[in-house]
Amino acid sequence: MLKKNxxxxxxxxxxxxxxxxxxxxxxxxxxxxxxxxxxxxxSGDMDKAIASLIIANGAASMGRKVTMFFTFWGxxxxxxxxxxxxxxxxxxxxxxxxxxxRDKEAWSF
Length: 109
Prior knowledge:
By secondary structure, this protein is an alpha+beta fold. It has helices spanning 46-61, 75-78, 92-107; strands at residues 2-4, 10-12, 37-41, 66-70.
């Protein structure tokens, strides 16, 4: 704690057990700074993803906790590059075909 006395001297008072926190020139106490790192990867470009992984690796090597969130196109970096098959349209042909196939299997002896 900093105070000015009658002689216009700055006197620092130290208290046991309290951690010191940085003080600005105007005398305001700054908020504590976290050493943890959090990154959001939302691009599917390989060069941007590799850059974010290099930065995260550097922070982790300095002993900091690193959290990475992969969202939107950034999720494509994590998955295998195989063709993902997804049917987007509903088709009665497929429903009837599957029903006929199931009925045929049920009645075969």
